[in-house]
Each structure stands twice: as C-alpha cells, then as structure tokens.
UniProtKB/TrEMBL annotation:
Record-linked InterPro entries: MoCF_Sase_C (IPR005302), MOCOS_middle (IPR005303), Pyrv_Knase-like_insert_dom_sf (IPR011037)
Residues of the MOSC domain: 125-275
SUPFAM superfamilies cross-referenced by the UniProt entry: MOSC N-terminal domain-like, PK beta-barrel domain-like
Membrane-spanning ranges: none
Taxonomy, superkingdom: Bacteria
Pfam families in the cross-refs: MOSC (PF03473), MOSC_N (PF03476)
Region forming the signal peptide: none
Organism: Nocardioides plantarum
Protein name: MOSC domain-containing protein
Length: 297
C-alpha cells in the first residue's frame, strides 16, 4: 500500500486548539487559515501556551468574517478580521514585524479567559515574516516565508513514529496509561504507511499534487507536555523522546516542510511519495552545532 495522508490540521490562533479538516489549500506560508492570529502582551511579544498553558483549551473556528472563540466556563465570542490599517508592532522569537490589532472586545475576552492581559492580532500579510531557514545558519531559501508558526510553514508527522514513541512511553509508565495522541505534536499533515522515523531522511516529498522540501527536523519543547484536553503539564513526551531521539541536546519529533506548489488543494487520503531522500541513520536534519536552532513548531 502507498503512503497516505491520513489527516490535515490547522491552528487558526497560535497555541490554541486546532481544527481537523478534510481539505486545505497550500499557500507559500503554510496551509490556508493556519496560524494567522496570535496573542501578544503589552510590549507586542508573542504569548504562547508555553507560558499560559490554558491557551490549549481555547477553541477557535474560522468563520466567513473572522473567528468564533469558545473555551470552558466562558461565553463564546465572534471576532471580525481587523482592517489591515490597524497595524501594531509585534515580535515572535527572532522575528519583528507588524500585525493588525483585533480590538478591545477580543482582547477583553482572551484576558478574562486566560487570567492575564493579552491582545489578539492578525497577520494580514504573511509575506512579512521570514522562515528560520532564511537566516544565516538555517535551512531553506532566502525567499521562504512563514505565517505565525514558530519557524517553518508546515509540520509533518507519521503515525508509525508516534506508535514507536508510544511504545517507549507505555513501557516506562504506570499501568493504565493511555497512549499519547498526535494532537500533542500539533502537526499540519499526518502520514501513514512508512517506517518509523523514516521522515528524518526525506528531502523532497509529494503529497497529493503538491511538493514540499523537508528542511529541518522539529526540536520539541515544553508545549508537547501540555495535555490538550486538560491544560495540565507532565513529563511526557519529552522524557521518552530524550531517551529515543536526543541529538544536539534536543528531543526531536516530526519534520518541517516548505511548500513549492502553492494553490494545490490537499485532501485526506492523498497519496504520499518521497521523491528525494538520504541514506538513513543520520538522525533528523538539524542546524549544525553552534548555529541557532529554530524552536519547535
């Protein structure tokens, strides 16, 4: 059986709950609708679930006019996409750019829901932000762009690699522990029908009618330890990844992709073909020691 795209996911607001979709348009900066909104503090610095774990409980849904936001214990709210003229200065890791302010009502809803003062912004023009690979020492091309994902436009994971990781997790866990869901890793595309960890070796992959460059493995952070259903943190999967997948002092799961076929529609069930790969055994593609490594997706 050929390798298959088993599911597609987008995350309308950075660090919030994702949406599983049957189809998605590939854009140069990622899947359409993926990570075009984020929260910032008073200084314009990005606020993520790394600092505010409760963000993973907020469920954004894309609507024709903007977003519908729901969360446990609060009334839902509708947010309109702001006019691009309402630009404010923001920063996300090493990137500084501008985004459109969503307005006081959205800010008040998020601040009350999270218990911290935040502002919601919308990246109306994702060509403003360069990928991590477009900086010296990174992977990718100087013209590559990304929306509000951490470093690169898309993340691919495989069901076989998750199964291998879950074997390690369950072998070292108390009886009754449930396997980790793929939602812990917040991928955009999930593939099945390949050997575990073979994505390390991919360099060019075709998914349906779209081709992608595999530009860097994904170094995982504390965000993966937050249960997406409760907002509570634990040691897994970082503890098990550190035993299985530790390179350059980091734990790795998944591979970052850059699209070379904008406009193509991906569909769950699409065939996946690896067009270029390297010999296995070298571990994930990563920035050479001494150069900055992009944060996890």
């Amino acid at each position: 059986m050929p390798a298959t795209l088993t599911s597609l996911h987008r995350y309308p607001v950075k660090s919030c709950r994702g949406e599983t979709v049957e189809t998605a348009v590939v854009e140069p900066q990622g899947l359409a609708g993926d990570r075009r909104w984020m929260l910032v503090d008073a200084s314009g610095t990005a606020v993520t679930a790394r600092e505010v774990n409760r963000l993973v409980l907020v469920h954004p849904e894309i609507t024709p006019t903007g977003l519908r936001l729901t969360a446990p214990g609060v009334d839902p709210v509708e947010v309109e996409t702001p006019e691009p003229t309402t630009q404010v200065a923001v920063s996300l890791f090493s990137s500084s750019f501008t985004a459109a302010a969503a307005g006081p009502a959205a800010d008040a809803w998020f601040s009350a829901t999270l218990g911290v003062d935040v502002r919601l912004v919308h990246l109306d023009d994702p060509t403003r932000r360069r990928t991590s690979g477009s900086f010296p020492g990174g992977f990718g091309d100087p013209g590559d762009r990304v929306s509000l994902a951490d470093g690169y436009p898309l993340l691919v994971t495989t069901e076989e690699s998750l199964a291998a990781l879950d074997e390690e997790v369950l072998a070292n866990a108390p009886t009754g522990r449930e396997p980790l869901p793929m939602s812990r890793f917040r991928p955009n595309v999930v593939v099945s029908g390949v050997p575990a960890w073979s994505e390390d070796d991919w360099r060019v992959v075709r998914i349906g009618g779209a081709t992608f460059r595999a530009v860097k493995g994904c170094a995982r952070c504390v965000l993966t330890t937050i249960d997406p259903d409760t907002g509570l943190r634990e040691r897994e999967p970082i503890a098990s990844l550190a035993r299985l997948r530790r390179y350059d002092g980091k734990a790795w799961f998944g591979v970052n992709l850059v699209p070379d076929s904008p406009g193509v529609v991906l569909r769950a069930g699409d065939e996946v073909e690896v067009l270029e790969a390297v010999e296995p055994g070298g571990g994930p593609l990563r920035v050479p020691t001494g150069n900055p490594v992009a944060p996890a997706h």
